[in-house]
Amino acid sequence: MKKRGLIVVDLQNEYLPTGKLPLSGIEAAAANAALAIADARNKGTPVFHIRHEFANGDAPVFVPGSDGVDIQPVVAPTDSEPVIVKNHINSFRETDLKQQLDTQGIEEVVVVGAMSHMCVDAVVRAAADMGYPVTVLHDACATLDLTFGGVTVPAAHVHATMMAALEFGYGTVTSTQDYLSAA
């Protein structure tokens, strides 16, 4: 079996109902992510936390030093788990995530987090392009309604579309319960 790592993407306070960018189903997704994190910790699987901040502080969300950038308490890292701060959508871009995965001998990754259509999508595609087999826990990810061309696409449809695209060409997409049962 390949050495696995769990990447927890942007499960930050900004996405909670009290944040500036609330996501549909974020609390349920974070609860499922917490189950995957607990399982990883019990098995000695390395956990890598990603935290998004906008470097210049000019953005209306993810402002450095604000409560919004803090990782949600339900998925808070332990002192031994790295927190990788990123300033871009892709968690690998201008960070040491790849180096940290390589240093720990990670050969495959499991991804949970937010937002399904942005940062989760970007890290999954990048990891797959780097040769990592990827598993996404679809019910440990969340997103929001999107609008394009005057059409509002419900979050559930955005999420389903992203998971279908990722499963089509980038990795395995499964539920948290199925993942935990098989692991």
Automatic annotation (TrEMBL):
Keyword Membrane in annotation: no
* Domain Isochorismatase-like: start-end pairs: 6-177
The record ties this protein, via Pfam families, to: Isochorismatase (PF00857)
Q: Say which domain of life the source belongs to.
A: Bacteria
Instruction: Respond yes or no to whether keyword Hydrolase is given for this record.
Output: yes
Q: Spell out the CDD domains in the cross-references.
A: nicotinamidase_related (cd01014)
Alphabetically sorted, this entry's keywords are:
Hydrolase
UniProt-recorded Gene Ontology molecular function terms: hydrolase activity
Question: Which protein are we looking at?
Answer: Cysteine hydrolase
The species is Pollutimonas subterranea
